[in-house]
Specification:
This protein is about 35% helix and about 25% strand. It is of the alpha+beta class.
Amino acid sequence: MEPGFAHNITDKREAYENFIEQFALMVDGETEEVSVLANASAAIRQAFGFFWIGFYIVKNDILILGPFQGDVACNRIRKGKGVCGTAWEKAETIIVEDVDKFPGHIACSSASRSEIVVPLLCGNEVRAVLDIDSDEIATFNETDRYYLEQVVEIISRNIYR
């Protein structure tokens, strides 16, 4: 992927469509979880420049920090706690316009202002969550939800067959 290729595209949908096309080719056939999640984190950050991008993986009934790009993060998150734990519990994407207004938000970084969390599913079971933070209020919307759900579908198809 070209460094920052999506930064030159003003239309968010077009940026995501270009990203998904390249990302799908990059991970096609790769089944190693850590490799795919690490490259996904780096590719999303490189393409969109979000403040923090990473994965939390479900292990022994807790979310454990996985591959990420950004500042130091929380190591463990319980089911139903914070945005990540809530997305895991509900098995659905959660968009938070202002993290200070989300009940029980876990502040791993005081610079985080808005967040989107997308679960990675294997059947109906959540195996991990993609967590993306922005240092600006109201960064994420339904366009982000739509395309990031496609990104995690590509990931899940490769690593959680």
